[in-house]
Amino acid sequence: KYFEASLSDKKTDIHRIAKALYGLASLKQPVLVKINLVKTNSELNLEDKIYLGLALAKLGDKENARQIYIEAIRPQVRFQGPDGWLAQESDQTKQVKLTSAIAVLASYLNIGGDKEALWNYMSEHNPIRDLNVLERVMIAKIELARAQTKNETVRFSYQLGSKKESIKLKN
Length: 171
Known about the structure:
By secondary structure, the chain is an alpha+beta fold. 57% of the residues lie in helices and 13% in strands. It has helices spanning 2-8, 14-26, 32-38, 46-58, 62-73, 92-108, 114-124, 133-149; strands at 77-80, 83-86, 154-160, 163-169. The protein has a two-stranded antiparallel ribbon with strand order 1-2. Strands 3-4 form a two-stranded antiparallel sheet. Strand 3 and strand 4 form a beta hairpin. The model has no long low-confidence stretch (mean pLDDT 89).
């Protein structure tokens, strides 16, 4: 109800609409037509385009999500060494959060190289006033599902205190 109310509220600006459409898309609501109407609005900022790209990807319109990623989002990402991050944002928390959202989109779209570089950055940089655990879990879920459909073995490692473990998942 919250996301639907956001769309019908006369005080809602385009930025809130973009986030509400992503929320509704995540809930599998039929908002593709609305997204296509909004995505050409000249008042959209980069954050809005990230959320609209995510919404399109969630609804299965990966072609249009990829177009937004390639044309509007990727040019704003700085790639250096093994890392990729949103370079134009000066607030570190917002920079890491938006980089994390871009990483989720790159993972949905399976954009090799980019998704790894963005993951590397978000794994090494934590937001100051927030968490990006949800984005990390979303990426892990997307990548595990992709590996499962390809019948691949998945390996990962983690460290808890001084104990380091390597895990191998098989179908």
